[in-house]
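Here is my example:
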Amino acid sequence: MKSNDDRLEKIKHGNFFAEKLTYDDLCLILSQDSKIQSLIRQCALNNQELNSTGNQSIKTSKVENVTETERVVDFEKLIAVEKIVEVEKVIEVDKLIVKPDPIRAELSLLFLTIKTLLEDSELSLIFRLNSRMSESQQLTTFIIQCALFITLEQLWETIVRRCKADARCATAAEKALAIQVVSLHNQSYVNDKYSVVDVPSGDDFDYENHQRLNSRGDIVTELAFYGLNKEQQIEYKPLVETKS
């Protein structure tokens, strides 16, 4: 043991001999020198701290990566859910929207005419219409009545009588009704077509082809109401206003 101590002292104080340090010398230093042992322990502790810090950084990085991934996934899920909600809203709104019936849209003018006729007791009687009927019954009845010549007769006589009684021209609605009824009537027949007769302002009054709204005058100033022809034959003369 003393020889080991002496040798260690020589090494510590730099009293080296010519030969190199042997393996036994190294073992002696490691096993006996407290400073070397302290340095080794310190190195070991430093290494452990480095490893611990490195591992912690790796763990933290992994946790951060996982957290960020979870955030991305959650955000994508949120977007997907919002899209689904928006689609559901669109579907619900679409259900609430009353889509127009294309057939009813085509028949809208007829329904409007029927509504107007129902507001006039005399005209509604000519077309056999009443408010107790369903819309389909009213439509069917109106079309059937338009196909009858007696309906044309009654309509013309009623409007002409009103114009003469009130000393007025037919309204735009009355003229439009006459044209519409004649058109529907003609759709029911191949032959014997009816047509309305207009008279331009400025024409000479012709007692054989015209009837006056007022009492005198030789020049037509305005058409009061259409005439009605059947295949170029006069059924009802056009009603006109005249002046001298």
About this structure: The first strand starts at residue 194 and ends at 197. Residues 34-96 form the longest helix (63 residues). DSSP finds nine helices and six strands in the chain.
